[in-house]
Amino acid sequence: xxxxxxxxxxxxxxxxxxxxxxxxxxxxxxxxxxxxxxxxxxxxxxxxxxxxxxxxxxxxxxxxxxxxxxxxxxxxxxxxxxxxxxxxxxxxxxxxxxxxxxxxxxxxxxxxxxxxxxxxxxxxxxxxxxxxxxxxxxxxxxxxxxxxxxxxxxxxxxxxxxxxxxxxxxxxxxxxxxxxxxxxxxxxxxxxxxxxxxxxxxxxxxxxxxxxxxxxxxxxxxxxxxxxxxxxxxxxxxxxxxxxxxxxxxxxxxxxxxxxxxxxxxxxxxxxxxxxxxxxxxxxxxxxxxxxxx
Length: 294
Hints:
The protein is α+β, with helices and mostly antiparallel strands.
């Protein structure tokens, strides 16, 4: 692609890039073109250069499974991570990680984001999937989100109610867009109490989740009136393996990469778990992770 390096710098333009190094699952085929963009001005210039290419937008790749044949066209990762704090309102760019923002807010004595401190990934990804934990979700604190509409190339803004937030989803699943930033409404708190809550949540994660193995976080969505991980456990699927993919022995809601898993192994294992749970309990369980590529 002509002149992309002159806009982004050579280190931010990669060809035939293995997606395994850009996902927490450590799995995935090659992306034809992989671009890292850290400013809106650069993004707008790049979009003019690649307007005839298919575009796939990713965040930090922590809720993502890329198929073994990779991704055609352009994979675009927007990493701008500036922020601004105005009293109890925080405007934060999509590329900032949840962990980084949580530590900034801790020092500013702002409470309400503690639940997201341990959610791997970026702010943009958290908005996209209405990330949540410990009874809280992004929908509880988002005031508005600014995004670039890839169909019109115009910057647009959504108020909270226009996000169509539901459990682990938002309107962005059906929009060709790039989330640029969001405004969060938080509240004053004490650094001591905020830190205690963050440490408590971190300890619970460490105790219950397989954080020592590559995964994309919780593989399956919470059930409607049932606990998905319990059904998988009751079906005796903990530790069940296909290829290099395994139902975690620590938490049945997670599928982990034992070190050499292919995307096909994970997909086959997801299908097997769904089929087995349905046969035993007549309950349909759905993946929470996003599967992309070919």
